[in-house]
Amino acid sequence: MKPRLNFRDFVPESSIPLLDTMMEGEPVALKISRSRQSKWGDFRAPHGAYKLSRISVNGDLSKEAFLLTLVHEWAHYKLWKERYRGAPHGDAWKRCFAELMSPFLNESHFSATVLPLLKRYFQNPSAAISSSPELYEALLGKKGDDGLKKLNELEVGSRFTFRAKTYERGALRRTRILCLRLDNKKQYLFMANTPVQSS
After folding, report:
1. Percentage of the chain exceeding pLDDT 90
2. What digits encode the pLDDT tens for the residues 93-103?
3. For residues 195 and 197, what is the distance between their CA atoms, to the nearest angstrom?
4. What's the CATH fold of domain 8-140?
5. How many Cβ atoms are within 10 Å of 175's Cβ, its own excluded?
6. Does this chain's domain 8-140 share its CATH topology with 148-198?
7. Closest CA to 160 of 144, 173, 147, 172
């Protein structure tokens, strides 16, 4: 069974045959999600009314970031299928992720800017790309945007604007920062290196 939604417009064209092989016959529903500040993708095992494993990836990512995120989540699916129940981003996941990504780690799928950073990242891959700032920015295509700061450069309590909404920076929670959106008083998690407009 192929994924329910076509992912081919969201990844480098060269990666499609490898992805087709990786996914062939697997009962997984793939969803292209709206932008989420707290994550680029996720994996969910079948539960309740959902009979298929589900993978979602943000649709506003660059093609390189989408490919990396899709394989990241596929590693979670593969381990779940093998009945692995250890740490979600422990050594088993790191090995699985690295093995799945190995065929993609060349100039056919990633730019000359991203590839060396990606190879360095895979020496010990982490759960959040934001823990590797250079790679994070290269994948987003950001090179020191004028007038923008990284969220983790702001002090707790500082106000900032992101996508026309004003927030107040809160505390760091591992790799993400909890922030209060001022208009609706709801809290949102942001990746620590998210570029924002300081107020």
Report:
1. 63
2. 999 999 999 99
3. 7
4. Zincin-like (3.30.2010)
5. 17
6. no
7. 147
SS3 116: helix
Burial 47-72 (b: 16+ CB within 10 A, else e): eeeeebbbbbbbeebbbbbbbbbbbb
Residue 38 CB neighbours (<10 A): 16
* Rounded Cα distance, 80 and 154, in Å: 38
Length of the chain: 199
Domain ranges of the chain: 8-140, 148-198
Please indicate, yes or no, whether the overall pTM of this predicted structure exceeds 0.85: no
100 vs 5, 77, 150, 167, 196, CA distance in Å? 21, 12, 31, 38, 33
Amino acid at 45: A
The 10s digit of each residue's pLDDT in 37-94 is 778 999 999 988 888 999 999 998 999 999 999 999 999 999 999 998 888 899 999 9
148-198 has which CATH code?
2.30.30
Question: What are 150-187's pLDDT values in tens digits?
Answer: 888 899 999 999 888 999 999 998 878 999 999 999 99
